[in-house]
């Protein structure tokens, strides 16, 4: 393990853990049970203490949190480390929080950091436009636990990976499923309490809310489906569920954006985030899912080879 490198984050994230495991990088997950100002005060104190205790030569910080990334930028002249930002979409092109202040902060971080890790060519171009130096490294394909298949209803069973976030077109999904026959059944993950009561009570009979699933049950549900769907309205967003579906060799239905088409074209059918687009894509997925599944072993091998080349670029920069 590289003792002079540290990956620092304020949340637990599958991408971060996988990257650190694959590249043998030390990881510090600073997690707080508090919210709001109290959380920021606690994590700021713990971050400063960690930086002075560990004194890394190379620091990798996940952004968001933009506050964490700013702290790491502020303390760089004092502790003299090279700063790499692992920038998720919101840290390059703010979508959920697009205020002028947030855009100014993300631009500052991009310009002043030594390297910005992004997941795709489109975000890399945005980093260059803002004066930063990008390195493209998509998420790796995770290793799921051993799972037990479960019986799911429907001739064609699809799991929608959802957290009911602001970039998920859930209303479009509901309207599209009303137009689909009972042969297609959609299982929706995530905490349904985030949905209005009237929405939960008026879902069509071919939709089932699974509730929040623990890790093993989540993977079991994905592996028991015929296909997996993960949608976003965010520009050039590579959704985490896509990698998870590939891990259990399940064909995908994804929102059409340049980044997703470029990375997952061998694994997925793509849709516009409209009712018409989604109904047509679901029918196409049903027709094509077996062919996609049969080709997934070779497609995954090509994916892994490309990922390893990108990861080695990061290791060379660190060295």
Looking at CATH, the homologous superfamily of the largest domain is Glycogen Phosphorylase B
Assign a percent range to the helix content. Answer: 40-55%
**What gyration radius follows from the Cα positions, in whole Å?**
20 Å
Strand content: 15-25%
Question: How many helical stretches?
Answer: 12
Mean pLDDT value = 96
Helix-strand category: alpha/beta
Shape, principal axes of CA atoms: globular
The CATH architecture of the largest domain is: 3-Layer(aba) Sandwich
In total, how many beta strands?
12
Sheet bearing the most strands, described? 6 strands, parallel
Number of domains: 2
Order of helices and strands: EHEHEHEHEHEEHEHEHEHEHEHH
Uncertain regions spanning at least 5 consecutive residues = none
**What fold name goes in the CATH topology slot of the largest domain?**
Rossmann fold
- Placed side by side, the strands forming the largest sheet appear as 2-1-3-4-5-6
């Amino acid at each position: 393990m590289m003792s002079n490198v540290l990956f620092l984050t304020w949340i637990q994230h599958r991408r971060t853990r996988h990257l650190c495991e694959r590249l043998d990088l030390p990881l510090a997950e600073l997690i707080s049970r508090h919210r709001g100002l109290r959380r920021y005060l606690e994590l700021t104190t713990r971050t400063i203490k960690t930086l002075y205790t560990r004194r890394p030569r190379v620091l990798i910080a996940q952004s968001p949190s933009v506050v964490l990334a700013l702290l790491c930028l502020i303390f760089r002249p004092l502790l003299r480390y090279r700063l790499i930002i692992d920038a998720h979409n919101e840290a390059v092109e703010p979508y959920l929080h697009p205020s002028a202040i947030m855009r100014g902060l993300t631009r500052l971080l991009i310009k002043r950091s030594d390297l910005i890790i992004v997941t795709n060519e489109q975000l890399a171009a945005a980093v260059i436009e803002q004066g930063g130096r990008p390195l493209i490294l998509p998420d790796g394909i995770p290793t799921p636990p051993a799972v037990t298949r479960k019986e799911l209803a429907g001739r064609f069973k699809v799991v929608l990976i959802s957290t009911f976030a602001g970039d998920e077109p859930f209303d479009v999904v509901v309207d599209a499923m009303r137009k689909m026959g009972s042969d297609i059944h959609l299982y929706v993950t995530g905490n349904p309490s985030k949905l209005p009561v009237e929405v939960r009570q008026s879902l069509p009979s071919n939709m089932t809310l699974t509730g929040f699933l623990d890790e093993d049950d989540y993977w079991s549900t994905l592996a028991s489906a015929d296909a997996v769907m993960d949608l976003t309205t965010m520009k050039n967003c590579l959704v985490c569920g896509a990698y998870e579906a590939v891990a259990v060799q399940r064909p995908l239905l994804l929102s059409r954006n340049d980044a997703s088409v470029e990375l997952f074209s061998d694994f997925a059918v793509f849709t516009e985030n409209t009712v018409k687009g989604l109904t047509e894509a679901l029918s196409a997925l049903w027709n094509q899912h077996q062919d996609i599944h049969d080709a997934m072993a070779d497609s995954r091998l090509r994916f892994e080879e490309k990922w390893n080349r990108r990861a080695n670029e990061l290791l060379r920069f660190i060295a």
